[in-house]
Amino acid sequence: MELTITKPDDFHLHLRDGALLEAVAPHSAKHFGRAIIMPNLKPPITTTSSAISYRESILKAIPKTSNFNPLMTLYLTDTTTPHEIQIAKKSGFVYGIKLYPAGATTNSQDGVTDLFGNCYSVLEEMVEQGLPLLVHGEVTNPEVDVFDREKVFIETILEPLVQRLPQLKVVMEHITTMDAVKFVESCKEGYVAATVTPQHILLNRNALFQGGLQPHNYCLPVLKREIHRQAIVSAITSGSKRFFLGTDSAPHDRRNKECACGCAGIYNSPVALSLYAKVFEEAGALNNLEAFTSFNGPDFYGIPRNKSKIKLRKSPWKVPECLSFPFGDIIPMFAGETLDWEALPI
Fold first, then answer.
1. Cβ contacts of residue 70 below 8 Å, gap of 6+?
2. Are 244 and 11 in contact (CB under 8 A)?
């Protein structure tokens, strides 16, 4: 079996910098036409000028024959100004502003401590400029159970935000719960959408502990119960325009995963399209795969759909046990396992 679909885009991607960037960027460039690049570097990408410099580094790291286009974002802080939003929009290179609640995930220590108190004028300017808010949707209150942080964030932050600024475009990134599905579906179409990762539609929280602690299945937001996984699968395979592909592929050196305090992040870029195809096939919804991977995201962001194509062939192949580089190893998602679908460029 073969499917020919419009080349997909990855609307949530971590490419890191330095040696890691050079190692992983070609994997995304092989399968995706564009990607929304996350700004949580050290130091974070908080200005348009730093986003443009980072973009140049990405372009140097991909093969010269590639047409991959990195779409940049800025890291929202308590001190971001409306003027910076104006500069970002005018640049033509910045496509969204990323909200990390301070302390929520990797390199989020510079994130927002009070969205309404410190950033409201910035959010109003984003409405004026038509720049979406890309949300890591978790509260960081230590009194909230880690498995409830998305749900509480929706109740305390997102619902009030949408009510106060209904014209603000919001992407709830890497959703993990049925609560997020219900929230997105309750909002006005075209204003609130969500990205969905391979891990959150294939794994539930049991995958963290089966056969011992599994650090390469640890990501943030953390994997949830099976009922939540099923709810997300039903949402994305239904044909809804509100959900689109965002891998949240997040590479770390193996030594930083397999240690006393392992980093959060799953590296899935080499296998993502194979895994999305698997889920849509099992749901009997291969006819809806192209919209999810290639149409819904560009349509929400107001950018043209890709013109080139990619082929998905049902042909078993084995995922490498590890990807080795001079700095160390990266363990890909489903390392050593055989997948049914293979993505091939045309």
1. 15, 34, 35, 37, 55, 58, 59
2. yes
SS3 226: helix
Nearest one of 38, 94, 92, 33 to 66, comparing CA atoms: 33
Has 83 been annotated as catalytic? no
Q: What is the pLDDT of residues 148-164, one digit of tens each?
A: 999 999 999 999 999 99
Between CA 83 and CA 72 the distance in angstroms is 17
* The one catalytic residue among 7, 14, 31, 257: 14
* Residues 51 and 94: beta-carbon distance below 8 Å: yes
**Is there a catalytic annotation at residue 340?**
no
Tokens (6 digits) for 265: 């992040």
Residue 248 annotated as catalytic:
yes
pTM equals 0.97
- Catalytic option among 7, 30, 31, 136: 136
Question: How long a stretch of residues is the chain?
Answer: 346
Tens-place pLDDT, residues 77-88: 999 999 999 999
Residue 136 is a catalytic residue = yes
CB neighbour list of residue 83: distance below 8 Å, 6 or more residues apart: none
Q: List C-alpha distances in Å: 105 to 19, 62, 79, 227.
A: 22, 27, 20, 24
